[in-house]
Amino acid sequence: MRIIAGRYRSRKLKSPTSLATRPTSDRLRETLFNILAPRIDGARFLDLCAGTGAVGIEALSRGAAHVTFVDQSRKMGALIKHNCDALGIDEGEIEVVTADAADFLRRSANKSNQPFDLIFFDPPYTVDYSILRYVGEPESLLADAGLLIVEHHKKKDLAENFGDLRRLRQVRQGESVLSFYAWTT
After folding, report:
1. Which residues contact 102 (CB under 8 A, 6 or more apart)?
2. What is the DSSP letter of 170?
3. Which fold has domain 26-183?
4. Can you give the pTM of this predicted structure?
């Protein structure tokens, strides 16, 4: 696994040997960041169910100001820290949180002093996506002009809306789909 573009371009990331983690493919990450290009510079980015941290690190590489990585596994949190340290990423640019995605969203809803401009959610395909209702609540952790991106299996139909968030676009690539949500008001 490698970083595709930006200041860490072509640098390799350590990834787990286990098949329990399903990293976002290089090709899908490239597609994602081609779409996000106008929004990424200076953005606050949340990588939810971060796994190896590849998506969040790609965001930093391309100009995001800060990335919060959330994963329920301590082992994956340590791997994210290792990958960031190996690249020389400044500690002020990242936060690594060990927490279940639903617990993190529930705790963070309506409490975010600095909302995220971009939230990327790539859970195990067996997860209950209804937890995204916490992102779709007014004054949530998503900025007013923010964007929620959900990676999911092509056979999984996600809701058109999560609270006040409405799906704007879907991009299909292989077995995966990226669904993009923004505020309706």
Report:
1. 128, 131, 134
2. E
3. Rossmann fold (3.40.50)
4. 0.91
